[in-house]
Design brief:
With about 475 residues, the protein is an alpha+beta fold. It has 12 helices and 18 strands. It binds zinc ion (ZN) (2 copies). One zinc ion binds next to loops. The site of one zinc ion has 4 residues, from loops.
Length: about 475
C-alpha cells in the first residue's frame, strides 16, 4: 500500500495535464452517479426519514456537545465521557462493550436485514490546552499532564465528533428495521497520544478486538477543522502524514557557568543538532519526487540556573513523513546527526523513538469515488460546498491503525462559525478553536448517507488491498 502511494505521488506530480483530464472525467462521473442514486426511491425515502429524525434531535445533540465540551478529559482518562456515551448507546438498544483500550466504547447496531458491516469512529479525548474562547460552556477543567498542572480543552473538536456519532446512532437506531446490515460505532480514547509510556489509542483498540465480532467491511471517520461552516471535503490519495515522536538527550558534563572548559556544555551542541536536522529536508530529500519530511523540535529541556552549565539537554521532537520508506530513512539520519555532532565535542546522545507511531493515511481513490455522492448530497442539504482535494497536510491521525486492518476513509467537515472570517479562524489545538453548532447536522447527514448507501450497495465490493 505504501509503495503504491509513492508511485501515485510521483505520477500526479509529473502528469498535471492528465490530472486536469481526470478531474473533468471525474466531474462527469459524479453527475452520473448522483443521478443513479437519486433514482433509488427506497433509499431516498429512508434518507428523508433519517434527516427528519436528525432535525428533531438537533437541539438535544447540540446541548450534548456543549456538555461534553464543558467536561473534557485527557487521553486514557475519558471516564465521564465514556460513561455518557455508553449509557446513551445502551438506551438506544445497541450491544455495548466498554473498557476497550482503557476507556473505549464499541457498540453494534443490527439492521433489520442481513448485509455488510460498516464502522464509524469518533475520538473521546481532549488536549492539555487552557481554553480561552469565552464561550458560556467553555471548559475550566484542570488535570495533570506529564507532571504539570494543565487546563483541559476539546481544542481538536473531538466533542463535535462524539456528538455527531451519537446523533447518527440515534437516527439510525430509530430506522434500523430498514437497514440491510450492521453499524459498528467505535469511540476511541487517546487519539492525541496516551500520556507517558502508556499504551492507548487506535492501535490498542485493534489489539483488544474492536475490529472483531463483527469485523467491519470498512471504517469511516470525519474530522472537523476551520473553514466555511457545514462544507465537506475528502482527499483522494494521501491524507494525513506518518507521525513519530522522538527524543535526543545530549549528555555532556556539568560545570560552573564561568568555567565551561571544565565540563562539556550540551547547550551549544543541542543548538547545532537542531539546525543540522533541518538539512535533512533541505539537502537530503529528493524533493522532485517526494514530499519533504517535517522535523519540529517542540520542547528543549534542561538546566536549573543561569550560571550552571547543565549535564544534559533533551530535545523532544516530532517527525512527519509521507511514506514508510521515507520515515525509516529520516529516523536513521536524525540519529546519525545527533550522535556524531555530540561525539565531535566529547558528549554523547541517547536517541529514542516512541514505538507508538501514527501511520500515514491514504484514501483509496476508487473507494473515494463510491462515497462522493453521499457526501455531496449531505452538503447539498445545507447548500454547502463539497470539495475533492488532491493535496494533503502533515497532521497525524491514529485512525490509520484501523486502516491497516480494514478499508478506511477519512473526510473533513468545516466548522468555523459564520461570524468569523475563515482566514482569521483559530485552527485545531488553539485555545480559541470554535465549532459552529449548525455544522454538526451536516456531519450527521454525511455519516447517515454513507451508511445507508454503503449497506444498500452491499459495501461497494471494496476489499482490503494486500500491504
Ligand atoms: Zn488533534
Ligand atoms: Zn483530532
Amino acid at each position: 500500500m505504501k509503495k503504491s502511494l509513492n508511485q501515485r505521488v510521483h505520477h500526479s506530480l509529473n502528469h498535471s495535464v492528465h490530472r486536469t483530464l481526470l478531474t473533468l472525467l471525474l466531474a462527469a462521473g459524479l453527475n452520473a452517479s448522483v443521478t443513479a442514486q437519486a433514482a433509488n426511491t427506497n433509499d431516498s425515502a429512508l434518507i428523508k426519514a433519517i434527516d427528519q429524525t436528525l432535525d428533531q434531535i438537533q437541539p438535544e445533540i447540540i446541548a450534548l456537545r456543549h456538555d461534553i465540551h464543558q467536561h473534557p478529559e485527557l487521553g486514557n482518562r475519558e471516564v465521564r465521557t465514556s460513561q455518557l456515551v455508553a449509557e446513551r448507546l445502551r438506551k438506544l438498544g445497541l450491544e455495548v462493550r466498554t473498557g476497550v483500550a482503557v476507556t473505549g466504547v464499541v457498540a453494534v447496531l443490527k439492521g433489520g436485514k442481513p448485509g455488510p458491516v460498516i464502522a464509524l469512529r469518533s475520538e473521546l479525548d481532549a488536549l492539555p490546552v487552557r481554553e480561552q474562547t469565552g464561550l458560556p460552556y467553555a471548559s475550566t477543567a484542570k488535570g495533570e499532564y506529564e507532571g504539570n498542572e494543565v487546563g483541559i480543552m476539546h481544542a481538536c473538536g473531538h466533542d463535535a465528533h462524539i456528538a455527531i456519532l451519537l446523533g447518527v446512532a440515534e437516527a439510525l437506531a430509530k430506522h434500523k428495521s430498514q437497514l440491510a446490515g450492521s453499524v459498528k460505532f467505535i469511540f476511541q480514547p487517546a487519539e492525541e497520544g496516551p500520556p507517558g509510556e502508556e499504551e492507548g489509542g487506535a492501535a490498542l483498540m485493534v489489539k483488544e478486538g474492536a475490529l472483531e465480532n463483527p469485523r467491519p467491511d470498512a471504517i469511516f471517520m470525519l474530522h472537523v477543522s476551520a473553514g466555511e461552516s457545514g462544507s465537506l471535503s475528502i482527499a483522494k490519495g494521501p491524507t494525513t502524514a506518518s507521525s513519530d515522536h522522538f527524543t535526543a538527550k545530549i549528555i555532556g558534563a556539568q560545570t560552573h557557568g564561568a568555567a565551561p572548559w571544565r565540563g562539556i556544555d550540551p547547550v551549544p551542541i543541542a543548538a547545532e543538532i537542531i539546525l543540522a536536522w533541518q538539512q535533512i529536508p533541505s539537502r537530503h530529500t529528493d524533493i522532485v519526487n517526494q514530499r519533504p519530511p517535517v522535523i519540529s523540535v517542540g520542547r528543549v529541556d534542561g538546566g536549573q540556573r543561569h550560571n550552571i552549565i547543565p549535564e544534559s539537554i533533551t530535545l523532544d521532537a516530532t517527525l512527519r513523513t509521507k511514506s514508510d520508506g521515507q520515515r525509516d530513512d529520516v529516523l536513521k539520519r536524525l540519529e546519525q546527526i545527533s550522535t556524531h555532532i555530540a561525539e565531535a565535542y566529547g558528549a554523547h546522545t541517547e536517541f529514542k523513538v516512541d514505538p507508538r507511531n501514527w501511520p500515514a493515511g491514504f484514501n483509496e481513490p476508487d473507494f473515494v469515488d463510491k462515497v462522493i455522492p453521499s457526501l455531496k448530497s449531505a452538503a447539498a442539504t445545507g447548500n454547502k460546498p463539497f470539495k475533492v482535494s488532491t493535496t494533503s497536510g502533515y497532521a497525524g491521525e491514529d485512525f490509520w491503525a484501523f486502516g491497516k486492518i480494514v478499508p478506511a476513509l477519512a473526510f473533513g467537515l468545516s466548522v468555523t462559525p459564520p461570524h468569523i472570517p475563515v482566514a482569521k479562524a483559530a485552527s485545531n489545538h488553539s485555545p480559541f478553536f470554535l465549532v459552529d453548532d449548525d455544522a454538526l447536522i451536516i456531519g450527521q447527514k454525511a455519516f447517515s448517507r454513507i451508511v445507508v448507501d454503503f449497506l444498500a450497495n452491499k459495501g461497494y465490493g471494496i476489499k482490503k488491498k494486500a500491504e
